[in-house]
Request: fold
Amino acid sequence: MTLATGVGSYPGSDQRDLDEALRVVRGELTLPHLPEVPGRGVTAGMVGRTLGIVGELDVDLQPAGWRLTGTSGSPAVDQRRARSLLAQDLDTLEDQAAGDSGPFKVQLTGPWTLAATVERPRGDKVLADHGARRELAQALAVAVGEHVADVRRRMPGADRLVVQVDEPALPAVLAGSVSTASGFGRHRVVHPPEASETLAWVLEAVRDAGAEPWVHCCAADAPLALLRGAGAAGLAVDLALVGADGHDELAAALEAGETVALGVVPSLAPADPPTAKTLVEQVLRWLDLVGLDPQEYAGRLVVSPACGLAGADPQWARRALELARSVADSLT
Reply:
């Protein structure tokens, strides 16, 4: 069976929008997920939500963004707000999804995107400090296990739990193109062996907790071979941004029994919206391009929007998920 899912984010600005997003994803998707509604504020964004579960490190919110403050065990007010908001979202999920069964997905920000976003106590990004980025990744790995256990407790009927690790900044980290705090320089390149090892800590923690680790990267030139080498059991991509080598890597993942989530539905409403038939043909052409039999591999495919839907209007967000479901059903 080909599944349909969303990347994570959804439009909205308050708790009622989160409630509605949950109803939509549970109603439309065969792989529903816990939506992110970043329009509610920075504590509801992908970085804030993830930092909220990291209990071993304290962070606060500065004008420039999130900043590490130490390991006192006394989180600042904004980190407590992020933690509380996620707990509230999980409470809503538990209430709505009581009795649900089948697969379910949650999303967290990966260690390299956190390192490229969060500042050290003394300024500049965690990315600039080898020890700090290692400490952040290890704290995230601990938090992931606790988070998975919490989700499982709230959703005992979920027979397949996926944890999607979002790494949109990883290509920039590998290319040495992440700006320093001043904006006049760039952080040093992180070499693939270190990038893989650090990501592997988090993916291994997901697997140890009994969940399935995916990595999502909708940036151009996503390092798919590195992600697979780090232990990703699923790859989620924007198909339009996959390079020539990436197509071969996605095919290899399918042949190895792994999952590939193809982002084919536009994340923003286009002037000429595609039909489900057009998108099905796009997926079939891709399978033909990489030499895979649709009947043999369709069950390992997942269909999704190209990226998050936070920037879309609510009507298109719902329509995008409907299209993903329709394409997945046709492939099945």
About this structure: The radius of gyration is 19 Å. The chain has one domain: 3-331. Strands lie at 3-4, 58-62, 65-70, 102-109, 158-166, 212-216, 234-238, 259-265, 301-305.
